[in-house]
Write a structure and sequence with these properties.
Number of strands: 8
Structural class: alpha/beta
Strand content: 5-15%
Largest sheet: 6 strands, mixed
Length: 672
């Protein structure tokens, strides 16, 4: 079989090389091949060591025979009429085969391109390019209109809000920690800088620059992970208070000019437009909103009715008509000139702006993470989002903007429309820039009432209605309900950052109180021996309770005063197997107990202590001895279990500390 295989290989090689001489006489070609094969067969009798060289020689002979036949018979074959017809038929077959291959390649390319543009990957939940661009358009309509209103709340030119949206949105779209998340000028940042805009508007860029530097520092220090420590009642109170502040900020827009309240038909028409805008945004069916954004429909409806409503203030009436001429000149209003001054005045607002902006951005990141769980981008990166937001605010302040942060409602709109990649955020920035440059006259014709209705819809979606159900159904404790209401009131009265800080502090104190009350002990007494098993967490809040649990009893004090201490030995064992030693206050409480029992001449045995707790106790008291075993956790730090312990499936090891009385020898009690 090996010989036949080699012959077949040689024949196939020869046939492939003499394709051009197929029109020659087959008898001559076959004769040449037959002679070559017979000659090659005679060579097969050589030894196995020369087999490879024989195969090479055989192929050479076949090539020589094929070349000789082709050179001798090809001219005659090409000049015959039968050969010409045959070659023409072969050419037509080749042309048809080539055409079919080109059609097949074109069809495959079109299918791949359409899959990239219009299809959706069911495995990664990744939407197409067209879906991301459509989501960017829907988001741009809502963001552009809201940015105008946010700038009015902050007390600056409306186009400054669009400029801030461009800078912050582009930075977060390219370098942010969560694809599909939308950032820009927000109500949160506008409400923070609004008091500064009334007192000293030229200091707003300074505050935004300082806030960007603070956010950059927090991002590089990995401070974004601290958002996981925010209690849920504090978050609910924060968003509820923010929604109330957005509604209260719309009251000033019923004054035109500023300080003069609208009256008569102007007030009625202004209110009707606000109600119409709110109704269209909230009442648009989902199958229509999928192709035409509801805010765009609301603006078109208000634009079509505003000419028939006299006395309705328009956007160009509030800030001047020259700002909405369009073209590249609009960028001069979006990025005004500035000077970095009044650092002392701007610093408090910068701190609040940095804290509140990071809080809303990281909350939005967590929400988008939950909605896009399972796509190819994985989990969002909080520290990267902090750095990108800080860079965006820094550049926005240098461009004279009001800053921005993550937009909760617009991110939900973006994800719902299929914007799960960075393409959607970049597209929304491009659409906002297009509207700023080429749609200036249209933006100037928007009624203020339409923007008021839009902000009312934003406030409705910002408010956490689930908190009312929690309170109504009594699914939360009274302290949680008090925290929600208190943070909401503080947000409205004192500010966003103050409310969050107070809410976190109150919740932390409440947790410490409840944890301190969870410390308890069980006692067992025997002849000359008493065992105390502690349960719970030993920290600064429970140190006083621990002192009461391990305090010497009346019999211990009687033993210390009697003559028996020189003859009989008494031992007290404190087991920390079910108790966590957390901080330095716990170490001080244990050391106080050691000294108290040492003064009475009683041997104190401390079991299952951590290595660092044992070290600190040795530094605080000179009457301790330790065993060789090591625990697995440290004091005042939450260090995870080591990988080798997970691999080996080893349980935490115990440790015994023996406190010797000053007037007795060291007594070592082994760990049980």
């Amino acid at each position: 079989p090996a010989v036949l295989h080699r012959r077949y290989f040689a024949i196939c090689t020869a046939r492939g090389l003499i394709t051009a001489s197929r029109a020659a006489h087959r008898s001559c070609v076959h004769a040449g091949l037959r002679k070559a094969c017979l000659f090659a067969s005679s060579i097969e009798q050589h030894t196995a060591s020369r087999r490879r060289r024989v195969i090479k020689m055989r192929c050479t002979l076949l090539l020589l025979a094929a070349t000789t036949s082709a050179k001798r018979l090809l001219p005659k074959a090409l000049t015959s009429p039968a050969t010409s017809k045959k070659y023409f038929r072969q050419y037509r077959k080749w042309q048809k085969r080539t055409t079919n291959r080109a059609e097949r390649l074109t069809r495959t390319s079109v299918e791949e391109l359409s899959g990239l543009l219009f299809s959706r990957d069911p495995h990664t939940d990744d939407h197409s390019l067209a879906a991301n661009v459509k989501a960017g358009l829907a988001t741009a309509v809502a963001v552009a209109l809201e940015a105008l209103q946010f700038a009015l709340i902050a007390g600056v030119h409306p186009l400054v809000g669009l400029g801030s949206t461009l800078v912050v949105g582009l930075n977060c779209a390219l370098f942010g920690g969560r694809p599909g998340m939308v950032s820009g000028a927000s109500a949160t940042c506008a409400l923070v800088v609004a008091p500064l805009g009334k007192e000293q508007p030229e200091a707003i860029p300074t505050a935004v620059v300082l806030a960007g530097l603070l956010q950059l520092a927090i991002g590089y220090l990995k401070g974004g992970r601290l958002v996981r420590m925010l209690p849920h009642p504090v978050v609910l109170g924060f968003v509820n208070g923010l929604a109330v502040k957005v509604i209260l900020a719309q009251v000033d827009h019923f004054q035109f000019p500023h300080g003069t309240w609208l009256t008569g038909s102007a007030l009625i028409n202004h209110s009707l437009l606000a109600l119409l805008s709110f109704t269209v945004i909230e009442g648009t069916p989902s199958f229509i909103a999928e192709w035409a954004p509801a805010p765009l429909l609301a603006m078109l409806a208000c634009l079509s009715l505003s000419p028939f409503m006299p006395g309705v203030p328009l956007l160009r009436d509030v800030v001047g008509e020259e700002a909405f001429t369009g073209g590249p000149g609009a960028l001069r209003y979006a990025f005004p000139s500035y000077s970095l001054t009044s650092f002392t005045t701007a610093l408090p607002y910068a701190c609040e702006l940095a804290a509140v902006g990071l809080l809303q951005s990281l909350l939005t990141l967590q929400l988008v993470d939950g909605l896009t769980r399972g796509n190819k981008y994985g989990r969002g990166r909080a520290s990267r989002e902090c750095r990108s937001l800080g860079l965006g605010n820094l550049l926005s302040g240098l461009c004279g903007g009001i800053g921005g942060c993550g937009l909760l409602g617009q991110s939900l709109v973006n994800v719902a429309c299929g914007g799960t990649g960075r393409t959607s955020a970049v597209a929304y920035v491009a659409f906002v820039l297009f509207g700023l440059v080429y749609c200036g006259s249209l933006l100037g014709s928007i009624p203020i009432g339409a923007l008021v209705g839009l902000m009312l819809a934003v406030a409705r979606h910002t408010f956490s209605w689930s908190s009312i159900r929690l309170l109504k159904d009594r699914r939360c404790t009274a302290l949680d309900a008090l925290t929600i209401w208190g943070v909401s009131l503080l947000t409205v009265k004192k500010g966003l950052a103050v409310s969050v800080v107070v809410g976190v502090c109150v919740t932390a104190l409440r947790f410490c109180w409840e944890t301190a009350n969870d410390l308890y002990s069980s006692h067992e007494e025997g002849l000359g021996r008493r065992e105390i098993e502690m349960h719970g967490t030993l920290f600064f809040g429970s140190a006083a309770a621990f002192a009461n649990h391990v305090a010497p009893t009346q019999s211990d004090r009687a033993y210390g005063r009697s003559w028996r201490r020189k003859v009989l030995r008494r031992t007290v064992v404190v087991d920390f197997a079910q108790c966590r030693v957390a901080d330095a206050s716990a170490i001080a409480a244990i050391d106080a107990a050691c000294r108290a029992y040492g003064d009475l001449g009683i041997t104190l045995v401390l079991r299952h202590l951590s290595s660092d707790a044992r070290t600190l106790l040795q530094a605080a008291s000179a009457v301790l001895e330790t065993s060789d075993d090591d625990p697995v956790y440290d004091v005042a730090d939450d260090i995870p279990i080591k990988p080798e312990q997970l691999l080996d499936n080893r349980a935490p090891r115990a440790d015994t500390v023996v406190v010797k009385p000053p007037d007795r020898k060291t007594v070592v009690v082994p760990s049980v």
